[in-house]
Specification:
The radius of gyration is 21 Å and the shape is globular. The protein has a 7-stranded parallel β-sheet, with helices on both faces. Strands 10-9-8-11-12-13 form a 6-stranded parallel β-sheet, sandwiched between helices. The protein is of the alpha/beta class and about 350 residues long. It starts with a strand and ends with a helix. The protein folds into 2 domains: about 170 residues, 3-Layer(aba) Sandwich (Rossmann fold); about 160 residues, Rossmann fold.
């Protein structure tokens, strides 16, 4: 049987969004063997992938791209490849920019069908290498623009890929926010390298006395550090009545539907929040991230704060209070957000690249 591969990176600094996206695509594929090829120092992820039903190869995080090709020779020789999806647009890959052309040239000899799931602007491989030897480049984000090259460029939110467990539930989007908002969801994705969850908790604590019915669900992602979890639990120890901590949930659906307001980072989660119609405050961690997210915030479906060095706890507290008190604004966010993403991106992508 022909094989479809998914090559991605997975770590605390990079996060788990790449894995979620690749799993969402893989779960829609039939009649092919699926291999995950993951560059990571998290050895437990292989068991997770195997338990889902897919084969998995782990790559040493210290390998350069050239060393990776050597390591994968046996896999490339033994398997008949239909396609390989790459979700590797991050700083760990950009260290080896001079090796990227060689890397894709070698792999293109094994299969014509190489698909790069890329980022935007300086957070994309095609920003640095215009003549990339792949068949498709996918930039599935709001504000993405056509880039001309020797590849087919699929761009824009019509190709945004939601996690399978999210995109099945098309009929349960929010249509209206309650008059009195009281349910706050805090979710910073699968990892939180900048400790945004802790910052958010510190911003919420002073306002608890103002909102007596407030309830907070705080999500710990699977890549959260033990130190971060410990610091957060220490902060909320005297306020446990207000908080529910959920560690590594299998699905976020019920928490999206429960929440009146979400506070999140500006990663891929923001698209899920928009899809479900959850009014949100989104925090940018770095200056570059802040610039990129300004494109998304231009659609006015959320409040955007950042970058991190400039965020004061008191400022974030004021933003939370303002949105909790503003029913009209929350309803506007819901209306705009749920029309940005339709959840059919994976289907459109597979129709293009496999047919």
């Amino acid at each position: 049987m022909e094989v479809i591969g998914f090559r991605l990176d997975y770590s605390n600094n990079i996060g788990g969004g790449h894995l979620k996206r690749c799993l969402a695509i893989a779960n829609k594929i039939s009649n092919y063997d699926i291999f995950f090829i993951i560059k990571t120092d998290c050895k437990n992820i292989k068991k997770t992938i195997n338990n889902i039903g897919y084969k998995c190869i782990l790559i040493n995080v210290k390998f350069t791209l050239s060393e990776e090709i050597t390591f994968l020779k046996s896999f490339l020789r033994k398997n008949e490849l239909k396609a390989i999806f790459f979700d590797i647009s991050n700083q760990s890959t950009y260290k080896y920019l001079n090796q990227i052309p060689y890397y894709f040239n070698i792999l293109r000899k094994k299969t014509e069908n190489l698909i790069l799931l890329d980022g935007m602007s300086k957070d994309s491989i095609i920003y640095y290498i215009k003549k990339l030897n792949v068949k498709f480049v996918v930039t599935p984000y709001l504000g993405a623009k056509l880039v001309k090259g020797p590849f087919v460029h699929l761009f824009g939110p019509n190709y945004f890929i939601l996690n399978l467990k999210v995109s099945k539930n098309f009929l349960i989007k929010k249509n209206k926010t309650p008059k009195i908002a009281s349910n706050i969801l805090v979710t910073m994705g699968q990892s939180d390298p900048y400790n945004l969850s802790l910052l958010t908790v510190e911003a919420i604590l002073p306002i608890l006395k103002l909102f007596k019915t407030i309830k907070i669900v705080l999500i710990f992602g699977p890549l959260f550090s033990a130190d971060l979890k410990r610091k957060i639990m220490h902060k909320i120890f005297l306020f446990k009545i207000f908080f529910k901590v959920v560690d590594s949930p299998a699905s976020m659906n019920k928490y999206y539907m429960w929440s009146d307001l979400a506070i999140s980072s500006t990663g891929l989660t923001k698209y899920e929040l928009a899809f479900f119609g959850v009014p949100s405050i989104l925090i940018s961690s770095t200056r570059e991230n802040y610039k990129l997210h300004n494109i998304f915030s231009g659609f006015k479906s959320s409040v955007h704060v950042g970058p991190l060095p400039l965020i004061k706890t008191s400022t974030l507290s004021k933003e939370i209070i303002a949105l909790l008190n503003d029913e009209q604004r929350r309803n506007k966010f819901i209306e705009i957000g749920k029309n940005l993403i339709d959840g059919k991106g994976a289907d459109r992508l597979l129709e293009k690249v496999l047919n």
